[in-house]
Design goal:
about 25% helix, ornithine decarboxylase activity, nine-stranded mixed sheet, EC 4.1.1.17, Lyase, Ornithine Decarboxylase, Chain A, domain 1, about 450 residues
């Protein structure tokens, strides 16, 4: 999930006396550029909502799904995409998945019910997670979902339901200390059961921490032999799921290197330090990471030769550039660090709506200060509207293009994947930020670009 970095003070004299972090501008999609350039739309939405809110552009999710599917097509293999629903609770995202032929990875009765209600068919669901409830197993079998079994006892519980259960056996990766998955001995015991009915073993699954495509490719290749062994024992194995972990590239390489190589605690309010950050610049990422998995040692050729379907469960990667989070500045203070002034802003929400603090880390892509006006670059960090000293949206002093004033908006980019609602709570009885759905519609004048329209997700 995160990547380590040194907290040692930089050697470069050009940064050693600065209290301002270098800019970390996020890659920006066309819909975001249009939104920020519109002199009224964002302000109208903010006025109507009256508090922090999340923006979602679901059409981008469809683009991302199609890009992953294109890698399957290019490599000539049968592939399945299951959206990791925990990455974002939006029903609109599930609807787009259904429209683009993707399934969903769910881990609770609520997630399963929501996926069905918004267009995902039961056969296109994979149910994951440990020690599943009796209700979840019953519902999954009733709808023909694929069930990732975490331990042998779960098979006994499924067998007692009186219906055929489609299952993947979750593998504990070699040398892993994970609490999830079955050991080789447990897998062999399950596969050698003399009477597997009503259990239908359709394949294997695994999850790896981090974002290394080579490690995923090599473990997948090693499990091909287990697939063939299971077939020889009479199990109809067709699927190998490698989980998620395809990464998202948030920032340009030059910006990320400037931050990581010259990192200085003096860039942060109260000289705050973190042990690690998400790797906000990655290569390969998203669909390119899937290509790297399939290309390594020609894994695609092996899968084709043995008619094995590769399943993936991306969450964050399907939500890349599909949303932003908006806060309004409601307080401005001036403070000094090393005798240099900076702004300490307070916004109308909390860091729980950016979620990175659940990993004791910081969400690094720069927010956009809106509206755009001329001014001098001003360092600013951003605090939340709570009484907690630790509730900071941005400990880092961000180089804003002008001084912020009360009433301005801060638009945090690319927050749809895990950031915008994975850790939210109504602390202080503050309302949870609603989701605003954006879409492009043709303008009445065919010479004009498509219009952005918005509605609240209900």
């Amino acid at each position: 999930m995160t990547t380590s970095r040194s907290t040692q003070a930089p050697d470069h004299t050009s940064t050693s006396t600065s209290i301002t972090a270098p800019p970390l501008p996020a890659h920006r999609d066309e819909w975001e550029r249009r939104l920020l350039a519109d002199t009224r739309l964002l302000d109208d939405i903010a006025y109507t909502i009256g508090g922090p809110f999340h923006l979602l552009y679901p059409q981008r999710v469809g683009v991302n799904i199609d890009a992953f599917r294109e890698q399957f097509r290019r490599h000539g293999i049968d592939g399945a995409i299951y959206y990791g629903k925990k990455a974002n609770k939006s029903a609109a995202v599930v609807r787009v998945c259904a429209e683009h032929g993707a399934g969903a990875d769910v881990a609770s009765v609520g997630e399963l019910s929501s996926a069905l209600a918004h267009g995902i068919r039961g056969h296109d669901l994979v149910v994951t997670g440990p020690a599943k409830s009796a209700e979840l197993l019953w519902l999954a079998t009733r709808h023909g979902a694929l069930i990732a079994v975490d331990e042998p006892g779960e098979l006994d519980r499924l067998a007692g339901l009186g219906a055929t259960a489609r299952v993947l056996l979750r593998v504990l990766p070699p040398d892993s200390t994970s609490r999830f998955g079955m050991t080789g001995i447990e897998l062999d015991t399950v596969l050698h059961r003399t009477d597997p009915a009503p259990i239908k073993v359709e394949g294997f699954s695994f999850h790896l921490s981090g974002y290394d495509p080579i490690a995923r490719s090599e473990l997948a290749a090693a499990l091909v032999d287990r697939c063939l062994h299971a077939r020889a024992l009479g199990h109809p194995v067709t699927t190998l799921s490698i989980g998620g972990g395809f990464g998202v590239d948030y920032l340009p390489d030059t910006a990320w290197r400037a931050f990581t190589e010259d990192h200085d605690p003096h860039w942060f309010h109260a000289d705050k330090t973190f042990d690690s950050y998400y790797p906000y610049h990655q290569r390969p990422a998203g669909p390119a990471a899937l290509a790297a998995v399939l290309d390594h040692d020609d894994l695609a050729k092996v899968l084709r030769a043995h008619a094995i379907r590769l399943a993936i469960e991306p969450g964050r990667a399907l939500l890349d550039r599909a949303g932003s989070t908006v806060f309004r500045v409601q307080g401005v203070k001036t403070r000094t660090a090393r005798s240099l002034p900076y702004q300490l802003l307070t916004v109308d929400g909390t860091s729980l709506s950016l979620s990175e603090q659940w990993f004791d880390s910081e969400y690094l892509p720069d927010p956009v200060l809106w509206p755009t006006r001329p001014g001098a670059v001003t360092p600013a960090c951003v605090g939340a509207a709570t009484c907690l000293e630790s509730d900071m949206l941005s400990w880092r002093r961000i180089p804003l293009p002008r001084p912020a004033v009360i009433g301005d908006l801060l638009v945090y980019p690319n927050t749809a994947g895990y950031q915008m609602d994975s850790n939210e709570s109504s602390f202080h009885d503050l309302p949870l930020p609603p989701k605003v759905l954006l879409s492009s519609s043709p303008d009445a004048d065919p010479e004009q670009p498509p219009r952005l329209r918005w509605t609240l997700e209900r």
